[in-house]
Amino acid sequence: xxxxxxxxxxxxxxxxxxxxxxxxxxxxxxxxxxxxxxxxxxxxxxxxxxxxxxxxxxxxxxxxxxxxxxxxxxxxxxxxxxxxxxxxxxxxxxxxxxxxxxxxxxxxxxxxxxxxxxxxxxxxxxxxxxxxxxxxxxxxxxxxxxxxxxxxxxxxxxxxxxxxxxxxxxxxxxxxxxxxxxxxxxxxxxxxxxxxxxxxxxxxxxxxxxxxxxxxxxxxxxxxxxxxxxxxxxxxxxxxxxxxxxxxxxxxxxx
Length: 255
Hints:
Elements: H1 2-9, H2 15-20, H3 23-41, H4 55-74, H5 78-85, H6 92-100, H7 105-119, H8 123-131, H9 134-141, H10 147-163, H11 165-173, H12 176-185, H13 193-210, H14 214-222, H15 225-233, H16 236-239, H17 244-254
Helix pairs in contact: 1-4, 3-4, 3-6, 4-7, 6-7, 6-9, 7-9, 7-10, 10-11, 10-13, 12-13, 13-17, 15-17
């Protein structure tokens, strides 16, 4: 059931059906409950490979993963986010923060993505994420080992800074400028060139709009972003990427 809902929730046009039938609310409540329970267990997963343990344990983990994926899908529309915010039986936003900090990399990815989508949906959702400590978690996600989680967070921060000065200043106070710079230069052991380049593209796409914010610009100038980019351009992998040099030049032009 969770897997089917994840497939349906991935299509925004299906959200009205999920909402009108009560499936969306049930899904959000279940997700918050599962996130709360798994947060207490604090299990550790070494990779995205198959879950070790009994069939029952694997089924339980897979069920929560698909539920998290479904909540992530639901957060892709305003109607879906409104359903998440209106849930009374459990705090769904707090559930997302639990997933985003999970030791399970798949839950971490969907939780971060759901938070990122929710925080940019509107003023109410931004305040709900902020109240739950979600801004701190999104900023921290910029330097997580999972590149997709980092990109979800970077995309949300770039949009927040562009859309709303107050929201931009809020994420700045949470250390977003420093974390974006760290994301740009981060070298994770065992990470392929493709994954590193993808992470750098996400970082630059967030940094470019952030340079329109006075506080971000001053902080990145003080950190000598221009020199950081100059040093990166000497790396063959960076310089030969089809997008990175252009993005880097756009950032330099805004300094």
